[in-house]
Write a structure and sequence with these properties.
Layout lengths: L7 E6 L2 H10 L3 E6 L4 E6 L7 E7 L9 E5 L2 H4 L2 H6 L17 E3 L4 E7 L5 E7 L10 E3 H7 L1
Length: 150
């Protein structure tokens, strides 16, 4: 359906307790942990509204595969991400051949992003929708380059 919203997504982990600690460090609230199924669910966004959920499933090494998802934040919040993550011992990662000294912009959307990883190597992203017309010809550039081209 065209106007559906994503309610939940799932990632795999090799160590559920370690993953729970990590996602809690991002200030996500645990909704429930089902020990018998080796899964933890976290609320995203406004916890009172229960609009979005992340499931983290422990699987064997054989069944493990990495995945990617993004958290949407405001641009103001995005600019605070490096400090927020550093306080938690998490590094922002270079992406698309660009260093992590500032957010990267996917000019076709446009969005600004910082990338990082969970302990299992799942690719995570903090992303902010930004103003301006789509400029796919720019590809992926640093935010300062995007701002100079607007």
């Amino acid at each position: 359906m065209k106007n559906a919203k994503l309610f939940e997504t799932h990632v795999y982990t090799r160590n559920l307790e370690k993953a729970i600690d990590f996602y809690r460090s991002l200030d996500l609230e645990v909704a429930t942990v089902l020990e018998d199924r080796r899964v933890a669910f976290f609320w995203l966004g406004d916890v009172e509204k229960k609009e979005q959920m992340l499931g983290v499933w422990e699987v064997s090494e054989e069944d493990f595969r990495r995945s990617h998802f993004a958290f949407e934040v405001s641009l103001e919040t995005l600019l605070e991400v490096p400090v927020f993550l550093k306080k938690r011992g998490i590094e922002v990662r270079p992406s698309f051949g660009l260093d992590a000294s500032e957010p990267v912009v996917h000019a076709w959307m446009p969005t600004a992003s910082y990338y990082f990883a969970d302990p299992d190597g799942n690719s995570l992203e903090y992303l902010a929708l930004i103003e301006g017309e789509s400029k796919p010809e720019l590809g992926v550039v640093h935010l300062s380059v995007w701002n100079s081209k607007r």
